[in-house]
Amino acid sequence: MSLRLTRSIFLLAWLLAPAALWAARIDNVVAQQDDARVIVEFDLAGATEKSFVSLLPRFGERALAPNRLSLSGDVGLVEPGPGKRIVWDAGADYPAGLAGPVDFEITAVDVSREPVSGLLFASLAGECFEMGCGEWNEYCEPDELPVFVACPGPFALSVSPVHNSAFAAFMNDTGHTAAPPGVVFANGRHTASPGLEEEPVSAVSREDAEAFAAWLSRRTGERFALPDEAQWEYACRSGGRLFPFGSVTGRMGGDLNSPQQENSGTNLLGCEDMSGGLWEWMADDYLPYPLYTANARPGQEGLAGVLRGGRIGSPLRNSRCANRYERAPDMRDATSTFRLVRLEE
């Protein structure tokens, strides 16, 4: 299909994620161009609750990250049903036009809210993938090698890190005394600092994070834990990407030593700020690749823990999904947080 966008030829196609990945699926896609706007109509089927819908345009080897584009309509959290519509105001984002073919990838991921913590969880298939830093990258660290096949299996990942309000509730229920900076004690109870209720909890150790996961498991009767490295990297890559903000190649076109300036936003699986926010604790100990098991804990004393994700101000190379960082598991650093997995039976 040949379409014209401003002064350039604009070829439009779409790539659908395989239906086996998630229960939600995209059906009956129709795409058209109206002047400098691209309109994609579709049906959202197979979901019982809201799904997270993303539209990712790709121009050559460049991924045009959806959180940086002028998208409107049925993107983000969307109710299932027919007659959905996404509009991309491409003229606003690229007033000079785009010369060459542009592909579109549309994905839909099931999400559900856990009522005790208030966290949203995205249900992921966890298929086998090549984990680590391979020849497709322009930069690798020694601890990201060798590349090996990891098979996380089905799991649900919280789309955002645990926020201050949920951590305050955990402290009130358990008597946990290590208060992060976003939680205050007043009138006999812990509460989130005003204005910081939905901000990620910070300055927590891996031990604090594991205690929170154990508390939520007891409260709900479900199994919650920190993500292991394979689960986290699978979600970060969201279908093979090297950066959570959408790049489909290892070529950034910039200096990997330059600082990251902002959060990565929401990726194709609905997961927010997997780089550029705070470092995130993993369940694993810091061990050489290949990891021999999920949630690798050999029972040795004194092993470091693992952080993932990078943060604002750290070099851009730290934002790669393969990047690993070691830290003592009892350390409470202002730059650390955590998110959870709900383990599927």
From TrEMBL:
The keyword Signal applies. It comes from the Bacteria. SUPFAM superfamilies: C-type lectin-like (SSF56436). Residues 129-342 form the Sulfatase-modifying factor enzyme-like domain. Keywords: Signal. Residues 1-23 form the signal peptide. One of its GO terms (molecular function) is formylglycine-generating oxidase activity. It holds the Pfam family FGE-sulfatase. This is Sulphatase-modifying factor protein. It comes from Alkalidesulfovibrio alkalitolerans DSM 16529. The lineage of its organism: Bacteria, Pseudomonadati, Thermodesulfobacteriota, Desulfovibrionia, Desulfovibrionales.
